[in-house]
Amino acid sequence: MKRCKKCGLWENYTNIRFNQEGICNYCEFYENHKESLENKEELERIFLQKMEEGKKKAKEAGSKYDCLVGFSGGKDSTYIIYQLKERYGMRVLAFTFDNGFSTEYGKNNIESALEKLKVDHITFSMSDDKLRKQYTACVKMMHNFCSVCFHYMHYYSYLFAGQNKIPLIINGRTKGQILQCADSTKGIEPFESSHHLKDFEYQMFKGLEDRADKTGRMDYLKDIEAEAVSYFAYHEISEEDTMKFLEEKIGWVRPKGVSGHADCFAHAMAETMSLEKRGFPIRTGELAVSVRRGELTIEEAEEIAKKDQENFQEVPPEIRKRFYDRISVK
Ligand SMILES: [Zn+2]
Predict the structure, then answer these.
(1) Residue 258: pLDDT above 60?
(2) Which domains does the chain have, with CATH numbers?
(3) How many angstroms separate the alpha carbon of residue 143 from the centre of ligand 1?
(4) What is the pTM for the complete model shown?
(5) What's the CA-to-centroid distance between 7 and ligand 1, angstroms?
(6) What is the pLDDT of residues 138-175, one digit of tens each?
(7) CA of 31 relative to ligand 1 center, distance in Å
(8) Closest to 53 in 3D by CA, of 200, 165, 167, 169
(9) Burial 170-191 (b: 16+ CB within 10 A, else e)
(10) Which residues make up the environment of ion ligand 1, defined by Cβ < 5 Å?
């Protein structure tokens, strides 16, 4: 199999193309835009400007909140809420999507973090019947189910933002998640910001959202305008430093396992499905971003991917059973 000389991505990676020198389209994009993507002062300036504009809009609209932040209890969302409130002086509304996949660890973290963060918080759930149908259909059609959570998480953020006149929705997507499929500036921060749900979902679904919209089965809330901002598109901090920071500031508890995603019990299931369908672990694209940015060598990234592959070859039967119990239509 062919692979990119720079980042090591193999030719089975999503929509990859190689130039004559054997460099992939994602590395080419990164090299051509490196200056903007790595300009820390400029990124901070853009972020600050967005926050100030948000505060102004919230004030004009008479909103109680400047921003809405999805809160899973994981390190990234907890860190973001802390920073927005303490460093940027934002009035934050945190919200949690109860999708029936959360772990005890995640629930405990949410509870203890809220005591320290002192922000308003809502938990919401949607029709269980509808959710089960969506998960089942998604597994059948795409051998994947995370897309359903992404969609409804963002769908309801826009709905709540609209109802409460909140101008900003701030998310915890990492630099790796933002850049893993970036080969044009369309929809990619810091080049472009999305102001509507469908524009935002373009970043993750690359056209699938368009097809879903055309079927009319998906309501993209087109009359609700709110700006989506990815905190980590504008800030640089390692996973380790994020965890240390939270341990120190709010007594956050780090997960025991190695894979991250300790807040979703079905993560192993998602990984196995990725291996079965795409042939590589979920974080492959994110690891390639780290290689491109000089944080890992190709060999180091490959070592991590190999471990994921071994760990997720098979899902423990009790997790598989719990997963299908959760998604099957009653
Ligand atoms: Zn590459």
Answers:
(1) no
(2) 39-239 (3.40.50.620)
(3) 26
(4) 0.94
(5) 4
(6) 999 999 999 999 999 999 999 999 999 999 999 999 99
(7) 10
(8) 167
(9) bbbbbbbbbbbbbbeeebbbbe
(10) 4, 6-7, 24, 27
